[in-house]
Amino acid sequence: MAEPRASTDQETAPLLRDPEAEGSQDYDGPGERDPTFLDRITSVVQEPLTPLTKVLLVVALLFLLLSSVFIGLFAGAQHKLKEGDGRGGRQITVTATATATTTASATTTAIATTTVSVPAPVPTGPPEERACFSSDCILLSANILSSLDTSYDPCENFYDFANAGWLANHPLPADKGSFGIFNALGQSNQQVIRKILESAEYSATLYPEESADKMLLRKLRGLYQSCMDEDQLNGMGTTPLIKLVETVQDLYRGKTTIVDAAGKDDTEKKRNGLTAAVAFLHSRGIDALFDFSIDGDVAVDPNFMTLWFSQPNLGLPAKEYYDEESIRDLYNDVLERLLVTIAEEQDYSSGVKSRGVSDLVMNEVKYKWWPPWPWPPWGPDDGDDDGGDDDEDPEDKYERAERLAKAVVHFERKLANASLDLDILYQDPWGTYNPVPLSNLTKTVPQFSFEEYFATFAPRNFPERIIVTYPAYPVSLSDILNKTESDVVEAYLVTRAALATASHLGMDTEAWQAVRSLEEELKGIKKGAVGDRSEYCASQVENALGYAAGRYFVNETFAGESREKGTEVIKDIIGAFKKSLSEIEWMDDESAEAAAQKADALRIKVGYPLYPDTRSAASIATYYSRVKISEDTFFDNLVSADANEQYWKWQKLGKQRNPNDWEMYASTVNAYYNPPGNEIVFPAGILQPPFFSEKWPAYLQYGAFGMVAAHELTHAFDSAGRLYNQEGKLEEWWTNATSAGFQAKQDCIVKQYSEYTIDDGKGGKIHVNGNLTSGENIGDTGIIQAYRAWQAQYNQSEEYLLPGLNYTREQLFFIAFGQVWAQNIKPASAVQRVRTDPHSPNQYRVDGTVSNVPEFAKAFNCSASAKLNPPRAKQCILWS
Fold first, then answer.
1. Based on the number of CB atoms within 10 Å of its own CB, is 853 exposed (0-12), middle (13-18) or buried (19 or more)?
2. For residue range 254-275, what is the model confidence (pLDDT) as tens digits?
3. Which of 75, 153, 425, 788 has a CA that sits 20 to 30 A from residue 324's CA?
4. Are 611 and 551 a contacting pair, CB within 8 Å?
5. Closest CA to 741 of 879, 563, 574
6. Is 430:724 a contact under the CB 8 Å cutoff?
């Protein structure tokens, strides 16, 4: 779920709410005003007024004038649409209430009554609809309208119909490869956090001097300030990275080791050195050679936390990139630049220190020494005219960097080819569950001491049994290590550290620029484009100290009944799903009953984590007690935070699952389903407009947030989730007939999405991987459950219409669903997504989904030949 952290200098308000725009619109024309309204204003004006009251009165008058004009225009348009029916008319009265409030808590409320002519109802017509004309409703309506582009036929291209207006009004920032509604809400959430980080009064007025909250806020602000001080970052140069790299090198070379090297032979020393270096990198959250995660033993006890051995992430996002010559050449260049930078820094440091210069002076003169010390670089003159000795010239650091960079790319390419394809890794729980004794892994990869590796993290919880996701990978890893020179493996480990942490350095450093050039190419970012620093730093704080930041985010944004209302929507959707089980043609009664039991057993988590407990500053302070924060060491601050996350990860090993654990922070704009825990989780970060507001009519709540809830619920029954029973245990709990029926539906989904394509930006097309995305595409089919849940509780008297929207509630339900997927994306980023992301491109998450929902075609009265209303035989309908 995590994306590379980019920044931007543009801030976009939430799609369905724009507080900055309140009171800023100026419509021409006074409209007609009722005398009663003037009489009331006159009576108020004749009273003695304070200066504050005068200001409030002027604001109220302006707002009421605008509201009256809007009502008049709206009513006039309605009248023109209906006046040709030949029937008589009648007069109705529309009342708009406007309230203006200042920071001094003074409130002025006035009521404007406007009389307009509308056609008289006929006995067989629908009842008169109630519309909402409050400022919130007007803004909500305006935001929906501004995102639409009615030049598109919703039955042919619903995604652009719902979103082309938003896409046109939100061009992609130069420093981003993609930007959509999820990102816009993420920015909005970060703005809340940023205000807390930048406001000293926030803690001064709310918390006692030495409280846990005070300490947490000091850490949050210390990390933020260390990120914002760009002069300090650039002044430190590459020094923090060199310290990290030299630790890796010393461990690998056996200068410092996790075991006593005395009496060890060369093979043992080499194994222990590799073990120590990889363990160190993993303890800082840096991938290398392989990956260990900790989760439930799903086939035995899904709540017993055990070790899972898997393939690592690579320097390039997907194995396909290693086959593209242009990308491979760029990656090679980036690695070479990193290796040269490290070598030059180390040469400089050792040269200056050998001359007796102190560290303080060395830092002051950094980058000013040339030629490099020692000099001459070729060594003492042997009297020949070649300037050196008679032996072959030694390899200098530039030649060495060039050779090693090529070798590292070749090494990683072998690792990539040995790795399991992502569609199998993500979609085949049985194929990726391979329990073995630890001794088996030790024998398979003899170059590595796994016992010593585990002792680094959890000496008291030594595992005897682990689960391997792909047994062929450790076999290949051993063979690759056997055929790779020691200095190449060292260069691989060094570049893994540099690639992971160079972004923590100042932007003036060569290491930062090298890594940035790779990101620009892979995402299609404009070269040299960098976004707003404060936004970037707020995101770094959120990622590094997310539980702490989440506490204050929740305090600021998650009041009222949001948690209760959100939970109610989720439970309604679960109820609709259970009711539909008896009507699913491919599911027999036995499997339907078991599915209902699993739905009932789902753990619903809404709002914020309870471990560490968001409600307790002391609980969060304990979690982050190991994180050391200094305002002048941003690089070390992030490394410390990463090490803390790894520490708590390994504390879970050998224990029972903590039911209060979360995999996301409270401010995250996302949600997830966890199969072994059989839980669906919805952070407060996504329970915000344009996904949710407790004040919205239900057709918007269920269309936007209901889509999220239904998607996560459906994951419990998708291509992978269906293989876990109600206790989170991996087993075949459906009958064979039901499993076969589901497989036919899944095959239909795979075929449908595999036919979709994206532009590669080079004049070609790349197909969506229908196998990789099948689980998420099936999750998206859950929108029908959200629709049914809304219909089941629909109450017209409580679901007001919005002004100026000539759409039915059913149509607005689907519009709310479609509009949260708005996203502009560069071709390069789209290619990376297709290759690595189990989610389909956003356009197909909308159009592909509604084409399988007959209720959508009915709501928009689509013809039988419409693209998004295919014949029933060609639709992939799972849940009816």
1. buried
2. 985 444 545 567 889 999 999 9
3. 425
4. no
5. 879
6. no
Paired sense of beta strands 291-297 and 301-310, if any: antiparallel
Catalytic residue among 295, 642, 712, 810: 712
pLDDT digits (tens, 9 = 90+) for 799-831: 899 999 999 999 999 999 999 999 999 999 999
What are 797's two structure tokens?
A: 């008297």
Q: From CA 110, how far away is CA 33, in angstroms rounded? A: 13
Extract the tokens encoding 482. Answer: 């056997």
Mark whether 712 is an active-site residue. yes
Instruction: State residue 352's pLDDT score.
Output: 55
Q: Residue 337 to residues 45, 369, 485, 500, 517: CA-CA distances in angstroms?
A: 74, 19, 21, 15, 11
Q: Is the pLDDT of residue 670 over 60?
A: yes
pLDDT of residue 27: 32
* Residue 313 to residue 532: CA distance in whole angstroms: 29
Say which of 718, 780, 799, 810 is annotated catalytic: 780
What is the average per-residue pLDDT within 433-446?
96
Cβ neighbours of residue 24 closer than 8 Å, sequence gap 6 or more: none
Closest CA to 644 of 258, 240, 284, 277: 284
pLDDT digits (tens, 9 = 90+) for 285-299: 999 999 999 999 999
- Dihedral angle of Cα 507, 513, 518, 521, to the nearest 10 degrees: 80
State the angle between helix axes of 135-147 and 158-169 in degrees (0 to 180), rounded to the nearest 10.
Answer: 110
Rg, Å, the chain Cα set: 31
Provide the β-strand partners of residue 656: 304
Model-level pTM greater than 0.90? no
487 labelled catalytic: no
pLDDT in tens, 56-75: 544 555 555 555 545 444 44
